[in-house]
Amino acid sequence: MKLTPLFSALTLALACSVSTSAFAAAPLAGTNAPGFHRVMLGDFEVTALSDGTVDLPFDKLLHEPAEVTRKALARNFQSAPTEASVNAFLINTGTRLILVDTGAGSLFGPTLGKLAANIKASGYQPEQVDEIYLTHLHPDHVGGLAASSQLVFPNAVVRADQRDTDFWLSQARLDQAPADSKGFFQGAIASLSPYAAAQRLKPFSGDTELAPGVRATSSYGHTPGHTIYTFESKGKKLVLVGDLIHVAAVQLDHPEVTIGFDSDAKSAAASRAKVFGAVAREGALVGAAHLSFPGLGHLRVDGKGYDWLPLAYSQLR
């Protein structure tokens, strides 16, 4: 039988309608991929890990007019509150497996606490971690250390600047702290006490070489002992800057802007200026705890501020 053009068109339209309807019936997946991203740094393997994201009212937290912050966020297609990443970094030097920061664990609610699962998804186990370096002892950096008072990383030694451990692990300071600040002390004490009891907490003082190719450098201000960590292999350098920056939309253009979480805002701004200037001159790779996951990229000077150049995706090699 010969099909007329009209019949053929109707048949095609019906087929498209049925096909479209069938595909649209598929349920939404509702989940993202596991939160890890891996690159090589010379002979070192670097795995960026997501602990999740958290909504933060940066228009209220930053030390600048709220309307200025909201306009800067809008220019970057963001709003307040802002979904902020919480990142950690796992570095395999070939002789040691080193984790820098541990996320929030259960201290910040259900949108965080994904670090251990993402370590496993990346091909490692928490039991394999040899050392943990903390940029500072705020809850979103130490909360992943322990769960129900048990060590999440049972074979790891925990390192942090003595200034931070003396400050945040002090029961006397906890007792004297304002009610809205007590949680910072309580989170640090709950997370680190199991390691201290197991003699696995080993503070250091100031600028220190922690392992071959790995150095701690003081960047005080955000907390009394805030520290950055530099990993170097075959002339390639990665600088993990912790909380020297929280809000790229604001603090790249205006590095002088500080945040309410800073213990000493003036010193925090000075540390940011010093470190950002150095990594921009050197062209070092930067890893940041709260820039959009995976938080890896380069800083380039732009007038009185900086451009953030996210690391281009590449097959691991």
Describe the structure.
This protein starts with a helix and ends in a 7-residue tail after the last strand. The protein contains 10 helices and 15 strands. The model has no long low-confidence stretch (mean pLDDT 93). By secondary structure, it is an alpha+beta fold. It has a single domain (32-310), classed as Ribonuclease Z/Hydroxyacylglutathione hydrolase-like (Metallo-beta-lactamase, Chain A, 4-Layer Sandwich). Helix content is 30%, strand content 26%. Strand 3 (82-92) and strand 4 form a beta hairpin. The chain is globular. The protein has a 7-stranded mixed β-sheet. It has a 6-stranded mixed β-sheet with strand order 1-2-3-4-5-8, with helices on one face.
Quaternary organization: single chain
Number of structural domains: 1
Unreliable residue stretches = none
Average per-residue pLDDT, rounded, comes to 93
Share of helix, binned: 25-40%
CATH architecture: 4-Layer Sandwich
Report the sheet with the most strands, covering strand number, pairing sense and barrel closure: 7 strands, mixed
What fraction of residues sit in β-strands?
A: 25-35%
H-E string? HEEHHEEHEHEEEHHHEEEEHHEEE
Report the span from N to C terminus.
Answer: 60 Å
Q: What is the number of beta strands?
A: 15
Principal-axis shape equals globular
By CATH, the topology is: Metallo-beta-lactamase, Chain A
Number of helices: 10
CATH level-4 homologous superfamily: Ribonuclease Z/Hydroxyacylglutathione hydrolase-like
CATH class: Alpha Beta
Category from helices, strands and their pairing: alpha+beta
Radius of gyration (Å): 23 Å
Provide the spatial order of strands within the biggest beta sheet: 9-10-11-12-13-14-15
